[in-house]
Structure formats: structure tokens, C-alpha cells
Write a structure and sequence with these properties.
The chain has 438 residues and is α+β, with helices and mostly antiparallel strands. It is built from 14 helices and 15 strands. Strand 3 and strand 4 form a beta hairpin. Helix 4 crosses helix 5, helix 6 packs across helix 8 and helix 12 crosses helix 13.
């Protein structure tokens, strides 16, 4: 079987950052561009030759890279113990196809609407996709391949492997992905063939957290990094033998203008953060005052009859299950065609820079970073170096110098081009921008 290049960040997401999608296309005749085949030619070429502006920290270079050859490894999902060695990749492609439609719908709606309506089944597929995206990143894959766990987790991994009759941790990684892909969203937390810590992580992030959509302003842009899909802000301490983590906000950048954020249930208005802060002494979130308006649900099922003496009466005080208990007490049940209206929550420039700072602060030595605008990335690096709330900062001074040189060179070239235009010469062209959703 031939080697295959497997993306850990799928191409449909990377194309939203492709510079081809934002180039100005100059067309001398309005009728030419309106012809369907001409439009399709532009789009097909951009898809096949989509280019990313990247910064590779390992070699310290800015450059251009094809989407088809960025953010991936050869044979990442190859399962030599299965008759169909690429069966995991095949299942992933089916989930990606479903998720890509949802993401495209979100991006398209954000350009003209104030909200997006999603049905429960699409929302479940999206949540599963977000988890798999985080779980299959290059560093998680390397963690299993190199057995780079803390002592207690490694003991748990070895024990689970013996129970599942697996020989290598990488086989466990593949089994976890396969089981997540094959199991309905609501049942993943109960699937005992998935490693215990990963089942608990899925429940915490994908079941117990609520989704919001933050939208950057006209002059702001999110960046994307090789390990940034699912980076979280919250409690991250060293417990007894193992790290202790509570994600307040998990970030999933889907375009330069949009980030999906999974928020801890503490940030629901009806719960509040003050009680848990006093009880456990956790640090407050640096995104506490950013909008957290959740989706508005519409349940299509007719409510079941509940006796008046039991209606709305629930004694469940568990932070994670109280809502479900109340839900049942008023006779409602979930259906796959329930709908949820998600508002696009516009955030300030300060919030966009803070999200980008979180991504930059979690980089590894082999960071690969993708950005749309060198000018905005330069501004982002300056803001990052001034940001004191993200903890110990990384050194991006060399990237800052390179961007400064690129921007000055571009400015000089533009000035020279203008000088060479003969006086009085003008040309009427029709300008069309090939949108990222194409």
C-alpha cells in the first residue's frame, strides 16, 4: 500500500487561511467573471493550489506552504493490525465531511446573519469532531508513540493495554479514535473500550461544557497553530503525581474571524463562578467578562405528563447533572432534530489578541503557525510580549524582526511600483475577492 499524507488539521479548515482565497482577482470584463465556468475555474485552482503563510519556529523561517502538505504526517492513521490498514482514516473522512458542512454553514451565516441555527445531530457531530481534532494533534500522537506520560498515567496506560490485549501505546491511540468515531456522541463517556482518562476528558469538554461562537471585528484576525486546536485556559496545576486541569475555555479556531469556544458550565449565568472560587480557591478566568451567551434551544418533542406535585421539582445539586434532572422533571426529552440558535458574539480586539496569546504561549519548539496577515501577526506579537496574564512567555523576538523586515520591504516595493506608473495613466478594472467559503 502506498504511503498517505494524513492531516491532523483537515484541509477544509486550513483553506479558510489560504492566501489564495483573499487575493484580489482582476478581471477586465464584468461578463467574463459572471460566467459560471470562469468562477468555477478560479475556485478549483484555489482549492488545488491553496497556499498558507506559515512560520516554522524550528528552522526560524517565514514561508509559503501548500495546504496539501502542511499540518500532517505520513501514515499517521495506518493500522497494520487491521485487514484494512487505512480504516481509521476512512472513518475520519466521513466525520470530517459532516463537520465541514457545519463549519461552512457557520462561516457563511456569520457573514450576513447575527446567528446560526444548528440541529442536535449536527451539533453532536461537531462536538465529536472538535474532540478528535484535539486528540489527533501531532503532540498527542507523539505522546503515545514515544510513551511520554507522567508515571501514574503510564501505569494506567499499561494496565488498560493489557486488558485490551494491545502491544503498543500507539495501538491504544488508534483504538481510542476508532471507538470515538464509531460510538454515538451521547454514549462515548460510557464506552469501556476507550481509555479511562480520555473518556473522562470527552465528558468534561464535549458533554458538560456549552458552546459559544466568538466573532472577531473587521480589523482583527485569529491565528492557528499546529497544537492550538483545543488549547484551553483554566486551572492547570501539578497534583499528586499527575497534573490537575479544569478547562474554563477550550478554543477551536475555524477561520480568521471565528473561534468556537467550549465553556465550563460555571460560566452559565445561573451557576456563577463565585461559589466554586471560594470553595476551592481556583484562579478566576481571564475571559470572565467576555460574552458567554449560550444557544437558545427549541425542543420539538411534546412534553410528557408530569404530576403537578412533581413538576419542576428536582433535588439534584450536582453541577453537571442538575440541568438534565430538571429537564426530566418538566417532561421534556431530547430529539435529534431539536434546534439550537447560536448568536455570533462579537468580541473586542483585546479579546482576539488574548486568544492569540493563549495559542502562542502553548507552543512547542517545533511550532508551525499559520496567519493571514503579516501586518496583523506583527501587531499580535507586540501585544503578546506585553500580555502578563498568560504566564511565562515564549520568545518571539526573532519572528518579530523577520516580520518587521518583510513589512518594510513590501512598503518599499509598493512605493517603487507607484513611481513607475506614468502620469495620467489609469485603467478601469473590475475587482473580485474570492471568498474563503468558495
Amino acid at each position: 500500500m502506498e504511503d498517505q499524507y494524513h492531516h491532523y488539521i483537515p484541509r477544509f479548515l486550513l483553506r479558510n487561511f489560504a492566501i489564495n482565497n483573499y487575493e484580489r482577482i482582476f478581471v477586465s470584463k464584468e461578463k467574463l467573471f459572471k460566467q459560471k465556468n470562469q468562477k468555477q475555474n478560479f475556485r478549483n485552482k484555489n482549492k488545488a493550489e491553496a497556499l498558507l503563510q506559515i512560520y516554522d519556529r524550528k528552522i526560524g523561517q517565514l514561508g509559503i506552504s501548500l495546504v496539501a502538505k502542511t499540518f500532517g504526517y505520513l501514515n499517521m492513521y495506518k493500522d497494520l493490525n487491521h485487514e484494512d490498514a487505512m480504516h481509521v482514516e476512512d472513518k475520519l473522512s466521513k466525520l470530517e465531511e459532516k463537520a465541514s458542512k457545519v463549519v461552512r454553514d457557520i462561516i457563511k451565516a456569520s457573514q450576513v446573519e447575527s446567528q446560526i441555527v444548528l440541529v442536535r445531530r449536527d451539533l453532536s457531530n461537531l462536538r465529536k469532531f472538535l474532540f478528535v481534532m484535539n486528540y489527533r494533534n501531532r503532540h498527542r500522537w507523539a505522546q503515545f508513540s514515544n510513551e511520554s506520560f507522567d508515571i501514574l498515567t503510564l501505569l494506567m496506560v499499561k494496565k488498560f493495554m493489557r486488558e485490551q490485549k494491545l502491544k503498543k501505546p500507539q495501538e491504544l491511540w488508534l483504538q481510542n479514535i476508532r471507538e470515538i468515531l464509531e460510538t454515538p456522541h451521547e454514549e462515548i463517556k460510557d464506552n469501556l473500550r476507550i481509555f479511562t482518562l480520555d473518556r473522562e476528558a470527552y465528558e468534561l469538554r464535549m458533554v458538560d461544557s456549552f458552546l459559544v461562537i466568538w466573532q472577531a471585528g473587521e480589523n482583527d484576525k485569529f491565528i492557528i497553530t499546529c497544537n492550538g486546536f483545543g488549547i484551553f485556559e483554566g486551572v492547570n496545576r501539578l497534583g499528586i503525581l499527575v497534573p490537575f486541569q479544569i478547562p474554563y475555555h477550550s478554543f477551536y479556531v475555524i477561520s480568521p474571524k471565528l473561534v468556537l469556544v467550549l465553556c465550563h458550565t460555571l460560566f452559565r449565568t445561573e451557576n456563577g463562578f463565585e461559589g466554586i472560587e471560594k470553595k476551592f480557591g481556583f484562579n478566576r478566568s481571564i475571559f470572565e467578562y467576555v460574552p458567554h451567551q449560550p444557544a437558545t434551544p427549541n425542543y420539538v418533542a411534546t412534553p410528557k405528563y408530569v404530576p403537578p406535585n412533581k413538576y419542576g421539582r428536582s433535588t439534584d445539586s450536582n453541577l453537571y447533572t442538575a440541568f438534565d434532572s430538571y429537564f426530566q422533571s418538566i417532561g421534556l426529552e431530547r430529539r435529534e432534530d431539536d434546534t439550537f440558535s447560536f448568536p455570533f458574539l462579537k468580541v473586542t480586539s483585546a479579546t482576539v489578541h488574548l486568544v492569540n496569546s493563549i495559542l502562542l504561549n502553548e507552543v512547542k519548539p517545533d511550532l508551525v503557525l499559520t496567519f493571514l496577515s503579516p501586518t496583523y501577526l506583527y501587531k499580535t506579537i507586540i501585544k503578546y510580549h506585553k500580555e502578563k496574564r498568560v504566564g511565562r512567555q515564549r520568545d518571539f523576538s526573532s519572528l518579530k524582526r523577520m516580520l518587521f523586515m518583510v513589512l518594510n520591504k513590501t512598503h518599499e516595493e509598493n512605493l517603487n511600483l507607484r513611481k513607475n506608473i506614468p502620469a495620467g495613466r489609469t485603467c478601469n478594472w473590475n475587482v473580485r475577492v474570492i471568498a474563503s467559503g468558495s
